Amino acid sequence: MKGTELKYEDLEGLLKGLLDKKTVDCLILPHKVGNNVAYMMVTDKNKIEPPAPAIFAPSFSVNAANIVKGWTIKEKIGIVAKPCEIRAAIELIKLKQIDKESVLLISVDCSGAFKNQDYADHYGEIGDWVDSAKIEELKGKGIAIREACAICDHRLADVGDIGIARVDGEKVLVTGITDMGLDALSAAELSLEDKEIERKGEKEKIAADAKKKEEELAKISSMEELEEFLRDCIVCKNCRDMCPVCYCKECFFDQPLGNPVGGDLLNLSKLRGAVGVPANQLMYHLTRVYHVSTTCVGCGACEDACPKDIPLTRLYPVIAEKVQEIFEYVPGRDVEEPLPFVTYEEEELEDKLR
């Protein structure tokens, strides 16, 4: 893989170069707002701030892929974001929700993230970067990373078009992952050379730690337990709205059958004799699980969006992982890898059904 080492402060020049050389028409990248982190869209290179503290900050607000969902216009956008966000964007490309040639995907290493409010409240202790040792230290103080991050095994910047990996000292390794990425780095006048960035040992450790933490989660093993788990759900649909890979233009649960109110709810009650309120609570979540089971990247945006603090990470990513294992599919791994439900093989899954 070709790339180059840069000092943190040189990242600003790289991003400015992407705009200056017209490689992209705009950039979406994280920036610091006080003790917090948010996204901004930049078209003027002079508005780009020193990016290093922000792009590696262990904070999660919204999934950046959700910002550009539906980006099918001719202007090209560059997205600087965590691997889960870049993976979601790749799935949206496959789902025809983003035009492949209109995005430049730039992933950055992630050690896990805190909810925005937790990050802001404890910024002095957390800082702009954490490693596994720091995460354990903070956990001992009652400051824990998001559950979705704890069970995530895709934290390294090895997806998208360009990867930005942290290396020892005050440097980063910027690599071109695809031809589009290499062309972008060349246009920014970077001197590229062959670089080794397999990081096999690091990947194996991340995967082992994530698996251990997932096994520690409380399990939902029956319909009764699922109903109890979702007991407080008010079917606000925030989890759907903040999910980067939930994309239907017209959702069934915004229609009378899926969201009965008033006279429709009365008619349904007369038909069944009694109906739970809010209606379709269980059906809503089972339908969503089916809908996103192959494309869920486990970003945890659904749980962050829940006003009732239901730990949805224990439902969506956990079930999605099992479905993805059946199909031997990793969402966001490769933009050319076909989606499981759009391909058909006559003997498919025979060994899984025995």
Could you explain the architecture of this structure?
By secondary structure, the chain is of the alpha/beta class. It folds into 2 domains: 2-215, no CATH class; 223-353, no CATH class. Helices cover 38% and strands 14% of the residues. It has 17 helices and 10 strands. The chain has an 8-stranded mixed sheet with strand order 3-2-5-6-8-9-1-10. Strands 4-7 form a two-stranded parallel sheet. Strand 2 and strand 3 (36-42) form a beta hairpin. The mean pLDDT is 92.
Secondary structure elements and their pairing?
Layout (H helix, E strand, L loop, with lengths): L1 E6 L2 H11 L5 E8 L2 E7 L9 H4 L3 E2 L3 H4 L9 E5 L1 H12 L8 E6 L5 E2 H6 L1 H4 L5 H9 L6 H4 L11 E6 L3 E6 L2 H9 L5 E2 L5 H16 L7 H7 L8 H5 L19 H11 L8 H12 L8 H5 L10 H12 L22 H4 L1
Parallel strand pairs: 2-5, 4-7, 5-6, 6-8
Antiparallel strand pairs: 1-9, 1-10, 2-3, 8-9
